[in-house]
Amino acid sequence: MSEPVVFSTAPEDFDYMRFNVPCQGACPAATNIPAYIRRVFEGNPDASYHINRMANILPGVLGRICSRPCENLCRHGEAELGSPVNICHLKRAAADFKTGRIPKEKQLFPRVDKSVAVIGSGPAGLAAAHDLAGLGFDVTLFEAFPEPGGMLRYGIPSFRLPRHLLDAEIQAILDLGVRLKTGVRIGVDVTVERLLSDHDAVLAAAGCYDANRLNLPGEDLPGVYYGLDFMIDVCSGNIPKLGDKVLVIGAGFTAFDCVRSSLRLGAKEIRLCLRRTEEDLVVNPDEILEAKKEGIHMESLMLSRRIVGKNRVEGVAFVRTRPGERRPDGKRDIAPIDGSDFVLPADAVIIATGQRPRPLEMPGGQTDRHTFKADPDTLATSRPGLYVAGDYLTGPSTVIEAIAMGRRAAEQMARDLTGRRFREKAVRMEETDITDRQRAWDFLPRQDMPTIQPVEERFEAFEKEVETGFPMDQAVAESKRCYLCYLHYEIDLDRCIYCRYCIDVAPRDCIKMVKAVQTNAVGAVTGLVETTNWREVHAIVIDNARCIRCGECLRVCPVNCISVTRVELVERLSQTGE
């Protein structure tokens, strides 16, 4: 690079980021993960929190309840390298140790004479409102519940997500000038048509609140609850009567919230009933471990047939299942085993098998399986001015996916309403001399999240947060494990003397003698053709997809021909405005 800082929008550079910074590529909101982890290491949680909030809006919330797709692709978790970095918990550390209140964001754009209504103040609605208000639009949030937050407030128990933290991060969004109207039911108190006539555009981000029924005999008996309805009652203070024995049917995050909440509400024996096995669960391993610590029983390979009882639920009749082959979606088929019927007694049954969007009343509105039809790219419906985002469009997803879609909807709406682009993605490249990673850090064990011990103390109050957070020294220790994949190591072929010192010192097969470089249609490097024949060697190349950024090659190079560039996917003000 001839300039100290370069921005690129070339397709091959975006491809480079996807392949070589896998954690950021896996994050739906494209959070700059190496950068915020580096700030934790440097002892600057304020900067770390700010980097997070630029992308994912709710760092303190996500630091507790994110589904962590980034960790599944963390390079440190590759087979011979150990365990993934505890990325999510480092996000929480930044939120826990930042100083003071969340600073009010600067208004980068002049006011736009356009108003937008956002239906739903869950993660998608909050993200859209945040971005639209920051771009200068007049934004009003409509929420059916008494308080904002949607599923964050009414679907997740307070022992996992403290309400004061949620309140603070929502308030930071409202401080941008967003108006909030709670207790407003769209289709009852005000119609979508009225919102469309009062505003220049409307975003439907109303979430999924209608439970999926199993349609079992006895499903309408007293004592049978649906997972999300149960959690809404619990989070609203309307405590259901459960009795001693509770069966929860389901395998997702809501099912786990139901079993752990039931325990805190006084149930003595709680069983989580799974159609498949524990190995097929998609919830975080930490969630499974903590549920087991608290005494939750997990029953595998069982399929519910009917709810047993006369005037009230008395149990559930099941049949054993046999796991089959994995489908393209990764789930395994199951087959019931003839003659394996059995009954488990229960005082209450909670069916937590998912939910679907609830239709909004709109005369003449097109609906498809309870959602408005929308273009998957533009999120626009056939009705001019009406857009859809989040779970209301896709069905149940994760919080981070909903935030990403809310931000995408805001960008599209702003462009449609003004004819201009406000922000754009770019790859930022800056020369750097960061080589302070020590080889010994690669062998540091993954830091586990501290929790309340002994377990009995967790039940002293329902809102007592189980995970207590990393102390700062533990957060710094975990941050050392990050390979800082946003660092790009490159050999200057004009200066390289082919001494092989870098190859010999590399702890991993990441520096190679090559005779050809493979590229894709946009020019991004997709592979290296290696050779051991010196007559065929055209270059010695660092494979950044294998590199663990230890810096050993840089330290041994006798001719100083290896450079380091910090390469980051960032968001910047649009350079064209078109």
What features would you describe in this structure?
- The protein has 4 domains: 10-102 and 432-479, Orthogonal Bundle (Fumarate Reductase Iron-sulfur Protein, Chain B, domain 2); 115-209 and 356-421, 3-Layer(bba) Sandwich (FAD/NAD(P)-binding domain); 213-353, FAD/NAD(P)-binding domain, CATH 3.50.50; 488-573, Alpha-Beta Plaits (2-Layer Sandwich).
- It has a 5-stranded parallel sheet with strand order 4-3-2-5-18, with helices on both faces.
- It is built from 19 helices and 24 strands.
- α3 (33-41) packs antiparallel against α4 (45-56).
- Mean pLDDT is 93; it is low at 363-370.
- It is globular.
- Helices cover 29% and strands 24% of the residues.
- By secondary structure, the protein is an alpha/beta fold.
Write the layout of secondary structure elements.
Layout (H helix, E strand, L loop, with lengths): L4 E4 L2 H10 L1 H5 L6 H9 L3 H12 L2 H7 L3 H4 L14 H11 L17 E5 L3 H12 L3 E6 L7 H4 L8 H12 L4 E4 L9 H7 L2 E4 L3 E4 L12 E3 H10 L8 E5 L3 H12 L4 E5 L11 H9 L3 E3 L2 E8 L3 E14 L5 E14 L2 E4 L3 E3 L9 E2 L2 E2 L13 E3 L2 H4 L4 H20 L4 E10 L39 H8 L7 E5 L9 H5 L5 E9 L5 E6 L8 E4 L9 H5 L5 E12 L5
Parallel strand pairs: 2-3, 2-5, 3-4, 5-18, 7-14, 8-9, 8-14, 9-10
Antiparallel strand pairs: 1-19, 6-15, 11-12, 12-13, 16-17, 19-24, 20-24, 21-22, 21-23
Helix pairs in contact: 3-4, 3-7, 3-17, 4-7, 5-7, 7-17, 8-16, 12-13
